[in-house]
Design a protein that fits this description.
Elements: H1 2-14, E1 47-48, H2 52-55, H3 58-67, H4 74-84, H5 109-126, H6 131-140, H7 143-149, H8 158-172, H9 182-187, E2 190-191, H10 200-210, E3 223-224, E4 228-229, H11 231-241, H12 250-256, E5 258-260, E6 270-273, E7 284-290, E8 293-298, E9 301-306, H13 310-315, E10 316-321
Antiparallel strand pairs: 1-2, 3-4, 5-10, 6-7, 6-10, 7-8, 8-9
Family: Belongs to the peptidase C40 family.
Domain NlpC/P60: 200-323
Transmembrane segments: 12-30
């Protein structure tokens, strides 16, 4: 967390703005972005996978979540703590700097959780309930919120986080700025429940429809049976037949999916990739069918693909589950 200290010093030179107690540092700059996602003001998973070092503090998280009106965010707060410290240091939420103190100045875990929950609530309010924008700002500083809300849609996207990191690293003369994938790193500890897995009946409907198009060519921008399909057009169309609504693009589908691990993935989940072409963070999506395979529309056409293939392994991001 040393980056926060450097950011705080640099921001004093860049912005002549008084820091509000318990708010993150303020930094403003950046480029535009057109991708957006809905505000997410509730947890998107009903359980978490964290270490016993973090789990032991659950009563304190429940206590201070109630104090600050964050009862629906307990698992988010604990996942954040897992990312910040793993529960291995007294300042478990790395809250010292939000109080204007040096890193790890807090020596009482309860004080850290109290301050961290209070700070999270302040940032969540500024982010207008967008939990992912709040999480990313916990790492970048509150200036990320101002930047996103300044004509860039006002909501978190992975692409905006990457742009902000690049712009600020260049401005500061640093090799990198913060963790642009902080949201993903926090959310990997959130676990979807089995109730959210596509039923076998739904999967049958999805694959019955999908297999109609096996062997057809990839069509950029295609999202209907008549036009043909690109990757996200195929998933959107096939899931629609099972009364599951998906947004249009691969990145938007990634944004609304609950992130799950490979060991949790089941047939009917989605699998996401990055860097298959220049541009957005998430650039490809397929339907996971189990046994390390997916069904997808790629440059070779609509087909089954092995996730162990070197190309897909190199671009793999993770699995997602759509909540119904």
């Amino acid at each position: 967390m040393g980056i926060k200290t450097y950011i705080k010093l640099a921001s004093a030179l860049i912005l002549p703005i008084l820091l509000i107690p318990l708010m993150l540092i303020m930094l403003i700059t950046g480029d535009d972005d057109t991708v957006s996602m809905p505000s997410n003001n509730i947890e998107t998973a009903s359980s978490i996978s964290v270490s016993s070092d973090v789990e032991r503090y659950r009563p304190l998280f429940e206590k201070y979540a109630k104090k600050y009106g964050l009862e629906t965010q307990i698992n988010i707060l604990m996942a954040l703590t897992m990312q910040e410290s793993g529960g291995r240091v007294p300042d478990v939420m790395q809250s010292s700097e939000s109080l204007g103190l040096a890193p790890n100045s807090i020596t009482d875990p309860e004080q850290s959780i109290d301050a961290g929950c209070n700070h999270f609530k302040s940032v969540l309010t500024k982010a207008k309930g967008d939990v992912d924008l709040t999480l990313q700002s916990y790492n970048f500083g509150g200036g990320f919120i101002s930047w996103v809300q300044d004509g860039r849609g006002g909501k978190y996207t992975p692409l905006l986080a990457k742009q902000f990191s690049v712009v600020m690293a260049s401005k500061m003369g640093w090799n990198n700025y913060g963790d642009a994938e902080y949201v993903q790193h926090v959310r990997r500890y959130l676990v979807a429940t089995s109730a959210n897995v596509a039923s076998s009946k739904q999967m049958d409907v999805i694959m019955k429809e999908a297999l109609k198009y096996q062997g057809q060519p990839y069509v950029w921008g295609g999202n209907t049976a008549n036009s043909g399909f690109d990757c996200s057009g195929l998933t959107q169309w096939c899931y629609k037949q099972a009364n599951v609504s998906l947004p249009r693009t691969a990145e938007e589908q990634y944004n609304v999916a609950t992130k799950i691990t490979e060991s949790q993935a089941k047939a009917g989940d989605l699998v996401f990739f990055s860097g298959t072409y220049a541009g957005k963070f998430i650039t490809h999506v397929g339907i996971y069918v189990g046994n390390g395979r997916m069904y997808n529309s790629n440059d070779s056409g609509v087909e089954y693909s092995s996730l162990s293939n070197a190309y897909w392994k190199a671009h793999f991001v993770g699995f997602g589950r759509i909540l119904k």
